[in-house]
């Protein structure tokens, strides 16, 4: 439950930071007289406001928040999946060893 809360807080903080940067940049972009094509109108406005680095931070917070939230929500299912995968890997490895032993026995 703690992971879900922490992930939700990070997700909300990232969204608030993202919106807090992009709303003023959109207002400036609407009044922008000239801009260069590669970053575009909004990209130029973000550069003027100094919002390029905070946009990266906000996207990072959003992604980390979603990952922690999903980890907290599906913790038991992830553990089951890891256990099943490990059992399958052991079974495959044992089958290969048995197969190799059988092939070595036939050659001798």
Tell me how many strands there are. 0
Order of helices and strands: HHHH
Which range best describes the helical content: under 10%, 10-25%, 25-40%, 40-55%, 55-70% or over 70%?
over 70%
Number of helices: 4
Give the overall shape.
elongated
Total number of distinct structural domains: 2
Q: By helix and strand content, what is the structural category?
A: mainly alpha
The average pLDDT is: 89
The separation of the N and C termini measures 60 Å
| Rg measurement, Å | 26 Å
Strand content: under 5%
What ranges have pLDDT less than 50 throughout 5 or more consecutive residues? none
Q: Biggest β-sheet: count, sense, barrel? A: none
Protein architecture, described:
The chain is mainly alpha-helical. It folds into 2 domains: 1-73; 74-108. 87% of the residues lie in helices and 0% in strands. The protein contains 4 helices and no strands. Helix 1 crosses helix 2 (40-49) and helix 1 packs antiparallel against helix 3 (52-73). The chain starts with a helix and ends with a helix. Keywords: Membrane, Transmembrane, Transmembrane helix. The chain crosses the membrane at residues 52-74.
């Amino acid at each position: 439950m703690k992971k879900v809360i922490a992930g939700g807080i990070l997700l909300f903080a990232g969204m608030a930071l993202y919106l807090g940067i992009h709303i003023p940049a959109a207002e400036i972009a609407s009044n922008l007289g000239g801009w260069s094509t590669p970053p575009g109108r909004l990209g130029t406005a973000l550069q003027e406001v100094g919002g390029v680095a905070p946009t990266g931070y906000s996207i990072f917070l959003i992604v980390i928040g979603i990952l922690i939230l999903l980890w907290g929500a599906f913790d038991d299912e992830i553990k089951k999946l890891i256990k099943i995968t490990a059992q399958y890997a052991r079974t495959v490895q044992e089958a290969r060893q048995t197969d190799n032993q059988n092939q070595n026995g036939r050659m001798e």
